[in-house]
Amino acid sequence: MTDGDDHRVAAGGGRAFQWWMVANLANGAGYYAFVILLIPAYVAEVTGNAADAGVVMAILGLAAVVGPAVGRFADRHRAHRAVLSLGVLAMSMAFAAYALSAEQTALYALEALLMGFGVAAVNAIGPAFIVGAQLPASLEARRLSVYDLISPVGQLLGGLVLAAVALAGWSFPARFWLASAVLAVIAAITWFNSREPTERLHAAMREPTANPEDGTDHGTRRPTLRQLLLSTFGLYVLILVLSSVAYNGIINQISNILPNLYGISAARTAGLISLAGLLNIGVYIIGGRWMGRSGLAQVLVTGHAMRLIGALGMALLGLAADAPELLVIASMQILYQALPFVQLSQPVGAVRYSTVAAGEASGWVIGASA
In this structure, are residues 126 and 248 in contact, taking their beta carbons and an 8 Å threshold? Predict the structure, then answer.
C-alpha cells in the first residue's frame, strides 16, 4: 500500500468495493442458493426420507463449528488470504463430490463436512479483512455494507439460475457441476485480488489497541477459553447460538419445507429465495446506514427479533390445516430479511467485545451461528 493510499484510508476515503469481496458470493450463490436448494432436496429424493436431508445439513452446520479454530490458524500463521481462497475452493470441491458420488449415500456426510469447512473459512476470514483492519468507522461501515450486499446479489442470481435449470430439466449431478464451476471461478478471483487487504490486516494485527468503548485490550496476550467464554464476548456468543437454532433449522430445510408442508413447488421455492435476495439488497442498504447513525445495538436486536417473529410464524402456520399461502410467504420473508441486520452487526460486535484477533473472533461468530 502506498503512502497516498494510507492517507486516503486514514481520512476515511478509499473504495468501498474491492474485488476480493466476490468471495461473499460463496455465501449468497454458494450457500443460500446452491446448498439450500440442491443438497436437502437431492438427499431427500435419493434416500426417500427428508429426515436424512436434515441429518446431512446438521453435519454441514457442525463442520462450521470449526470457525474459531480456522480463524485462530489464520491469525497465528498470517494465512488469511490462503484460508479464504481455500474455503471457497473447498465448497467447489464439495459440489463436485456430490456430482460424482451419485447415490453413494455413505459419502454425503463427508461431503457435508468439506462444505461446512468451506463455509466456516469464508465467514471467518472475509469480515475480518474489514473489521480487523482498523479502518476509519465511515470506511468500515461502507465496506461492510458493500461486502454484505454481495451475498443477496449472489442469492438472487443463484436462485434464478437454479430455477431456470430446474425448469429446463437438468439432473441434480448437472446442477452440482454448475455450482462447482461457479465457485471455482470465485475462488480464483478471490486469490488474485486479496493481497492488499491481507497486508493491511496483518499490519493492523501488529499494532495492539484498546477498544475505547469498553476498555477491551486487543493486544497480543491471548485469554484462556474459560476467560473468553465468561466474558462479555461469551454472552454475545450465547445470544448468537440461541438465535440461530430455529433460524437455521428452517432455512437449511426450506427446499423441503415449502413444497412438502405448504405445497409450494420447487421452482416457486427457488423464485421466493431469489425474491428474498432481491429484498435483502434494500435491507442491507437500510441496515448499513442505520448502523452508521445509531451504532451496533439497535441493528443487532432488530435482526434477532425478526428471526423470532418469522420462525414463530412459520411454526404456527405449519400446525394449521390449509395455511394461507400469503402468510407463509410473509413469514418466510421476515425470516430472510432478518439476515442483513444480523450479518451487518455480528462481525462488528465480535471484534468489539472479544480479546482475540479478528480472524478468531469472526470464527466464533460463524461457529455460534452454525
Answer: no
Give me 323's grid cell.
Answer: 395455511
DSSP element (H, E) containing 150: helix 137-167
Query: What is the residue-wise DSSP string for 77-106?
Result: HT-HHHHHHHHHHHHHHHHHHHHHHTT-GG
Nearest-angstrom CA–CA distance, 339 and 211: 26
User: How many CB atoms sit inside 10 A of residue 296's CB?
Assistant: 16
d(CA 289, CA 140): 12
Q: Write the DSSP symbol of residue 227.
A: H
pLDDT band, residue 134 (cuts 50/70/90): confident
pTM metric for this prediction: 0.77
Angle between helices 254-262 and 232-251 (to 10 degrees): 50
- Cα–Cα distance between 116 and 93 in angstroms, integer? 12
- Residue 230: which H helix or E strand, with range? none
Cα separation, 238 vs 329, whole angstroms: 29
Query: Using one digit for the tens of pLDDT, what is the confidence trace for 27-55?
Result: 889 988 899 889 988 888 888 887 888 88
C-alpha grid cell for residue 91? Answer: 465448497
Instruction: Name the packing angle between helices 108-125 and 50-63 (round to 10°).
Output: 40
Task: Compute CA distances 272 → 255, 258, 314, 331, whole Å.
Answer: 10, 10, 15, 12
Question: How far is it, in rounded angstroms, from Cα 208 to Cα 6?
Answer: 18
Give residues with Cβ within 8 angstroms of 319, minimum separation 6. none
Q: Residue type for 301, please?
A: V
